[in-house]
Amino acid sequence: MEVNKFRFLYKQIDSKSLEDKVDNFWTELLRRYFYHDEFIITQNARPADNEKKKADFIIQAVSGPNSAEHVVLVEDKRPSLSGRDTAWEDAVGQLTGYMLQARDADKRKLKLKKGELLPYSIYGIVNIGKYSRFYVLHPHNDTLQDLPDTHGKAFHLKDNAQDIMKFLTRLVAATLPYVSSSSSSSSSAGSSRHGSPSRPGSSSGAPKTTSPAAGKGPTSSSGASAKPNPKP
């Protein structure tokens, strides 16, 4: 039944679709991966209380009764823009602004002194129609970097579904707050959180899944790039 749901949502995204069809697909996909009680997924959310503009999705990780940090932000655009370099550049720029605002908000909540770095990275996803790119904002950078192993590529929801599942699993493992400080060593996906190393390759942070768009089982497969790759 779940595969049918994703196939239905996937077919709703065509060249004439508006952004809401992309939102609908990613609403379900994010819920499928970031299902842990520690995660809060909010749609059309402000990255900071004093900001008027809203990101399409913000995922926060709850590390305590009074603490929830921004860990993933998502920006969606309508399918007709996917072949335009300027559309990708604009979307990445928009997402960067949201992520910097979210980072500043977290710094204020943690009461960090001037010059102190946030102790974790924040991750970003840009979806234009059926194509997705993955990014990371490190504490010491003000620009987005391509998520390791993505090489700036735009991944197609169906043709590259296994890669997308792999990257989402990695983001879950990198952002899920671990209580134990004896977790396995930190990986290339990001920084450790709350004194506990992240585990990007681990399957413990995400459900066993089939390909959302194609219905097939998963297998494994610098600065941020904003130019779309040729369609597969």
UniProtKB/TrEMBL annotation:
It comes from the Eukaryota. Residues 207-224 have a biased composition (Polar residues). Residues 181-232 are annotated as: Disordered. Residues 181-206 have a biased composition (Low complexity). This is Uncharacterized protein. It comes from Achaetomium macrosporum.
